[in-house]
């Protein structure tokens, strides 16, 4: 299943609007017999990222700054937990904007981690 989804994702360009069906992690009581928690996530496809575990990264919200960078909210769905990917709209945003969003996501991750370390270390 994972190979088929990865093959499909390789045909997508960043900026496509997609829906990902996946199973989320769950906690509960032992009386509960069904531990599968189906989930649907919608967003702009940014790519498949991750060093240890691959994740489908979906942009949820973006806030453009004056310098052309964006503050982005995202969902990262573990590829191994994915069931199905559906293309809703090809090229919802241009390739140029999609690249700016991806660059902002990648740059923002390092800034956020540095900021968190400083804030918690004080």
CATH second-level architecture: Roll
Structural class: alpha+beta
Counting DSSP E segments of at least 2 residues, the number of strands comes to 5
Kindly state the mean pLDDT as a whole number? Answer: 82
Order of helices and strands: HEEEEEH
Report the uncertain regions: 110-122
Largest sheet: 5 strands, antiparallel
Strand content: 35-45%
Number of helices: 2
What does this structure look like?
The model is unreliable at 110-122 (pLDDT under 50). The protein has one domain (2-121): SH3 type barrels (Roll), CATH 2.30.30. The chain has a five-stranded antiparallel β-sheet. The protein contains two helices and five strands; from the N terminus they run αβββββα. The longest helix is centred in the last third of the chain and has 27 residues, at 95-121. It has helices at residues 2-9, 95-121; strands spanning 17-24, 37-49, 55-64, 70-78, 82-89.
Short description:
This protein is an alpha+beta fold and 122 residues long. It has helices at 2-9, 95-121, and strands at 17-24, 37-49, 55-64, 70-78, 82-89.
Describe this protein with a few key phrases.
5 strands; alpha+beta; SH3 type barrels; 122 residues; 5-stranded antiparallel sheet; single chain
């Amino acid at each position: 299943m994972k190979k088929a989804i990865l093959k499909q994702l390789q045909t997508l360009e960043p900026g496509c609007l997609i829906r990902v069906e996946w199973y989320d992690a769950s906690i509960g009581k032992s009386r509960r017999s069904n531990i599968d928690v189906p989930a649907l996530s919608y967003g702009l496809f940014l790519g498949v990222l991750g060093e240890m575990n691959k994740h489908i990264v979906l942009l949820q919200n973006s806030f453009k700054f004056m310098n052309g960078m964006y503050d982005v909210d995202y969902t990262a769905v573990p590829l191994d937990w994915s069931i199905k990917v559906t293309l809703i709209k090809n090229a919802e945003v241009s390739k140029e904007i999609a690249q700016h969003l991806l660059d902002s996501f990648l740059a923002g991750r390092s800034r956020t981690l540095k900021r968190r370390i400083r804030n918690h270390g004080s």
